[in-house]
Amino acid sequence: MSLRVLIKRSVALTCAYYLFDDWRARRRLAAGDLATGSGARHENLDIDASLAYVDRVYGDYLAYGGLERFTGSVAEIGPGDSFAVALRILGGGAEHVHAIDRWVSRRDAEAQRRIYSALAERDDLARLFDGAPAEKTIRNLTYHAGQPAETFFRESGLRFDAILSRAVMEHLYDPLAALDDMAESLAPGGVMVHRIDLRDHGMFAGHHPLTLLTLSGGLHWRITRSAGRPNRVLLPAYRAWLEGSGLAGGIAVSRLAGVAAEQNPAPWEALDESARAQALDCVRAIRPRLAEGFKAMRDEDLAVAGLVLIARKSHH
Ligand SMILES: C[S@@+](CC[C@H](N)C(=O)[O-])C[C@H]1O[C@@H](n2cnc3c(N)ncnc32)[C@H](O)[C@@H]1O
């Protein structure tokens, strides 16, 4: 048996490895090394699959936000290895996109060039490039690499008509404070759309899907704060944030604990009954082992493993 398999079998050994890995990530960040494999989404996709992914993410943002197109200034947090979604946002009519990332995802420049060229041709977007289609030639795009969302919105002084993220908020070390800053940064009439994946991102693969929620708060902080592993901010915290934010909006459920299939984002009551029952069973099986803070949560809240948060600022 390999050492990796042996470590993965034990939750304690897995945590010990993540402790070491978090220390390593902290050292890399301190040395200014922003490279990460997180967000290398297009690495193993062919051009058709890449375009389908980009179209899906863009289409989801519009659908969740109830918009036909984006306008004005848009922030995309954690774009990962491609600005193709940003390109589609610009193509739809936005004036400027700010891409904000704590790290710089590993990318294949040639594969990305192919994606930009294909989009430029398919959607007639050559005007959005300053020369041949490539990452560096996209007009009206600013890449804020090395800037965590937790500091960017507080410090930039910029105003946005839309703030978007997908599979990012769960990696923030302080997502609720960052949301406060984003709310401040929204222009009147502006909208936020965050699709948030609350699963453990494979940290405890082979164990119960909610094993991450059994770790003490201190241990969890030590193994996640620098490496960007999932923060355990769950549905009740986002709900309370939205209620206290003064913004209009809502939360839809996009994933259920222990259920492999994604859910079409909808309120809990509207989801498939057997899928909900499966998720509730999943929660009940681990309830006695839950760490403080999660014990008091309702089964229905712990059963939500992914959500879409929408928040809108009024026009005046
Ligand atoms: C899982 S990837 C998602 C990539 C892309 N949005 C997608 O859906 O394919 C997470 C991204 O969030 C970025 N990220 C993690 N923590 C962040 C933070 N605190 N502030 C800004 N970006 C962050 C990562 O570097 C990475 O690009």
Helix content: 25-40%
**What is the approximate shape?**
globular
What is the number of helical segments per DSSP (H or I, 4+ residues)?
11
- Which spans have pLDDT < 50 for at least 5 consecutive residues? none
CA radius of gyration is: 20 Å
Compressed to H and E, one letter per element, the order equals HHEHEHEEHEHEHEHHEHHE
Cofactors and ligands: S-adenosylmethionine
Gist?
The protein is α/β, with parallel strands linked by helices. It has eleven helices and nine strands. The strands form two sheets. Strands 5-3-2-6-7-9-8 form a seven-stranded mixed beta sheet, with helices on both faces. A two-stranded parallel sheet has the order 1-4.
Structure description:
By secondary structure, the protein is of the alpha/beta class. The protein has two domains: 57 residues, no CATH class; 253 residues, Rossmann fold (3-Layer(aba) Sandwich). The chain is built from eleven helices and nine strands. The strands form two sheets. The protein has a seven-stranded mixed sheet, sandwiched between helices. Strands 1-4 form a two-stranded parallel sheet. Strand 6, helix 7 and strand 7 form a beta-alpha-beta unit. Helix 3 packs across helix 4 and helix 7 runs parallel beside helix 9. The longest helix has 20 residues. It is globular and about 60 Å long. The mean pLDDT is 96. Bound molecules: S-adenosylmethionine. The site of S-adenosylmethionine has 22 residues, from strand 3 and helix 6.
